Amino acid sequence: RCVCYGLGRFGRCPAARYQLAFLLLLLDELRVPPGRCALFDPAFSAREAAALRALGLCLLPENEEGKHGVDGAATLFYMVHCGKALYNNLLWSNWSPAALSKLVIIGNSFRGIEERLLSRILERDYSYIAKVLKGVEEVALPSHPRYLDTFNDTSVHWFPLDKLQELSPEVWDCVEEPMYQDCEDLEIIRKGE
């Protein structure tokens, strides 16, 4: 399965078109049928939604705010240039070694997030990203001069079960839903906004 968040207005934006093209090539390479790929972006126009359906892709009916569970199935999350809260929510909704080991994320580098944020802000606002840093493997996508703005800071992330099981048991105890009250740069569109 595949879930894509935050693709953007590909009818207007060349970078979003390249990201869509890469997604389609990736689905083909991984032999994921288009009907097993669900997308959501509140910015999609009616014409863009129709184009995605014509490609055989599914549109999620509502804004999940990134809170999509893997439900025991291997799932690729394609989230290029999404906000940190979306990644944090995704981790929270799959917060167990069994679930996390079933997901792969193509999106913003977690190491880059760690480098750019003060550790107290990372731990306060994006605690699930902070807690999983020692349990994730990450490989950056190779850069290409033509697509620097399209895939910059993009990595493939996966969560090996053995690495997750090495994390301290206390890591898995806190399962409070992220709220983001004190977050100054919240990059997520909430339900109803």
TrEMBL record:
Record domain SRR1-like: where: 1-158
UniProt xrefs under PANTHER family: SRR1-LIKE PROTEIN
Encoding gene (name): Srrd
Cross-referenced InterPro entries: SRR1-like, SRR1L
Pfam families hit by this protein: SRR1 (PF07985)
Descriptive protein name: SRR1L protein
Family designation: Belongs to the SRR1 family.
Organism for this UniProt entry: Bombycilla garrulus
Annotated GO CC locations: cytoplasm; nucleus
